[in-house]
Task: structure prediction
Amino acid sequence: QKEVEQNSGPLSVPEGAIASLNCTYSDRGSQSFFWYRQYSGKSPELIMFIYSNGDKEDGRFTAQLNKASQYVSLLIRDSQPSDSATYLCAAASGGSYIPTFGRGTSLIVHP
Amino acid sequence: DGGITQSPKYLFRKEGQNVTLSCEQNLNHDAMYWYRQDPGQGLRLIYYSQIVNDFQKGDIAEGYSVSREKKESFPLTVTSAQKNPTAFYLCASSIGGLDTQYFGPGTRLTVL
Result:
C-alpha cells in the first residue's frame, strides 16, 4: 500500500516567518512529487512540482526532495496570512501513474 | 478560458436516488480522475480514465459509475448503492502519466 504521510498540524507561524511543511512517502519508485494548496471549501491548486533531488525555487516557495530519505518538503518564505490553508503533498510512481495524496497539513499564519 | 468545470456546485440527494456529477475540460488532456474528499481527510481516488472509452476503478469505486465517451467529459454517477455519499467530489485532469493534475472547483453532495 503506497502511503504519503503528513503531519496534520495545525502549523502556526507568525507573519513574515518561514513555514516548513514536510512529507514522507513509502513507495521508492515514486518519481513525481507535487504540493497543492487548498483553501477551506475550495479545490486544490498546484503550488509546486519536483522530479529531481535537491531544491526547486519559485518565488517565495521552495520544494526540497531527498529520494534517499523518501522525504519532500515545502518552504514558504515571508509567510503571509493569505498563505493560511491546507497543503497537500502527492507522490506518483512510474508504475501506476496515479498520484497518492497525503491528508494535508493545516498552516495558520497569524499577523 | 481553458480549464475544468464541474456542475452543479451543490447537490442534494434523497436516499435511494442516483445522481450524476458533471466534469468537463477543454485542456485537451487525455487523463481524467474523480476523487472524494471527506472532512479532515486526503483525496481518495474513485475512478480514472487515461483514454477515451476506457476507465479503471480506483480505491473506493463501489457505489459509483463513470463513462468516458468523449475526451472532454467524464461524468460520475453516485448510485443508491453508495451508503455514505455525502462528501466533496473533485474532478481532475492531466496530460497523462506522471504529469501534474489540475482540479475543477468541486461538487459538494449532501444526502438528505
Remarks:
- The two ends of chain A are 40 Å apart (CA to CA).
- Chain A has a mean pLDDT of 94.
- The interface with chain B takes residues 4, 8, 31-32, 34, 36, 42-46, 49, 88, 90, 92, 94, 97-99, 101-104 of chain A (CB under 8 Å).
- Residues 40 and 85 of chain A are 7 Å apart (CA to CA).
